[in-house]
Design a protein that fits this description.
- The chain folds into three domains: 67-140, Trypsin-like serine proteases (Thrombin, subunit H, Beta Barrel), CATH 2.40.10; 156-256, Trypsin-like serine proteases (Thrombin, subunit H); 262-371, PDZ domain (Pdz3 Domain, Roll).
- Helices cover 17% and strands 36% of the residues.
- It is built from seven helices and 22 strands.
- The strands form five sheets. Strands 1-2-3-6-5-4 form a six-stranded antiparallel barrel. A six-stranded antiparallel β-barrel has the order 7-8-9-12-11-10. Strands 14, 15, 18, 19, 20 and 21 form a six-stranded antiparallel β-sheet that branches.
- A hairpin with a 3-residue loop joins strand 8 (177-192) and strand 9 (196-204).
- The protein starts with a helix and ends in a 7-residue tail after the last strand.
- 34% of the residues are buried.
């Protein structure tokens, strides 16, 4: 039987009559004629493709190296004036045809757009499509002479609170920056122009600062799960547009230059306990129709708005309108549920079934979705 190296060494020492000091003083009793050499500890061999870093650190290093070449700086100037930037942000390569995804608010401030790649090369870009209601835009650069490496879109519906995510971009002009954090919450709604909200927004504590707008939020597989949009007026709260919304909007922007957002045409309020009690509802859930926009899909479908009001704790609530509790068989608790369904599962021209409580009874209203009109200008 072959002894392990450590047991063999002990056996040899005992055979030679050597007594070893185990007190930690480092001083032993030598036996004449016996010389012992310390056995060197071999250095650990890094795993192939690794640098000896811990697993998660090595993953971050590899993710950065694999994805940052696809991240660009976006700079916008007033027409004919490239001496003073009107705004700047981030974008990422969407395909090999030269399409770049960024935020609409990044390119809205000017006319001439330039894109700078990570190798420092700056080229002109054309804005080929924008969506105000989803704060997304698509640019295009001439793909000739560039080895474009598109980032892959992931499935944002698979995200869970606690998943690790990384934000890539150019915060405060520091190009090629990466920050990391977790998914703090899902399904947020973020207000945009025209009194509309982007549904299904991802909340993260990965630092997102001015200049990050339009950059990718990626998972540990290197897939884009969101487009960084904004930092809240608080520490460790940032927001990103979900990749599943990007997947619906961006192809339309490339094809047509715009995206047609589905629209019902109502003003609503979430049902609160006081409203439920006053209207005789069994529970405080659903979305009450407060006002119906004239000549809208809701008007044509016969939805009814509020007929009165009550005051509770100094707050006035409208009552008496239809209460939407479901859409196409899906339960509705708050308005965010309606917005998410329309944005991610419905299109202009689709007919949806609204499950509505009216005069104490649940009825089904068939409604054909229209196109959301442009935002009103002040």
């Amino acid at each position: 039987m072959r002894l392990p190296g450590s047991l063999l060494l002990v056996a040899l020492l005992l055979t030679a009559g050597c007594v070893t000091d185990l007190t930690g003083s480092g001083e032993g009793v030598e036996t004449p004629g016996v010389t012992t050499e310390p056995t060197p500890t071999p250095a650990p061999t890094p795993a192939p493709g690794r640098t000896g870093d811990s697993g998660i650190q090595s993953t971050y290093v590899e993710l950065y190296q694999d994805t940052v070449p696809s991240v660009v700086s976006v700079t916008v100037f007033s027409a004919g004036d490239t001496s003073m930037a009107e705004s700047s942000g981030t974008g990422f390569v969407y395909d090999e045809d030269g399409h770049i995804v960024t935020n609409q608010h990044v390119v809205d401030a000017g006319d001439d757009v330039e894109v700078t790649f990570q190798d420092g090369e700056t080229v002109p870009a054309e804005t080929i499509g924008t969506s105000i209601y989803n704060d997304l835009a698509v640019l295009r650069v001439d793909p000739e002479g560039h080895e474009l490496e598109p980032l892959e879109l992931g499935d944002s519906s698979r995200l869970r609170e606690g998943h690790i995510v990384l934000a890539l971009g150019n915060p405060l002009g520091f190009e090629g920056s990466m920050t990391h954090g977790i998914v703090s919450a899902l399904g947020r709604t973020m207000p945009v122009q025209g009194g509309f909200g982007i549904p299904g927004v991802i909340q993260t504590d990965a630092p997102i600062n001015p200049g990050n707008s339009g950059g990718p939020l990626i998972n540990l597989a290197g897939e884009v799960v969101g487009v960084n949009r904004a930092k809240a007026q608080a520490e460790n709260i940032g927001f990103a547009i979900s990749s599943n919304l990007v997947e619906r909007v961006v192809p339309a922007l490339i094809e047509d230059g715009n995206y047609r957002d589905p629209w019902i045409g109502i003003r609503t309020q979430d049902v609160r306990p006081a409203i439920a009690e006053e209207m005789g509802l069994r529970e405080a859930r659903g979305v009450e129709v407060v006002e119906v926009v004239p000549n809208s899909p809701a008007d044509r479908a016969g939805l009814r708005g509020a007929t009165g009001s009550i005051e509770v704790h100094g707050i006035e609530y409208d009552i008496g309108g239809d209460v939407i509790v479901g859409i196409d068989g899906r339960p509705i608790r708050v308005i965010d549920d309606v917005l998410s369904y329309l944005s991610l599962h419905a299109s202009v021209g689709d007919t949806v079934d609204l499950h509505v409580i009216r005069d104490g009874r649940e009825v089904t209203v068939d409604l054909t979705l229209g196109e959301r009109p442009p935002p009103r200008t002040q």
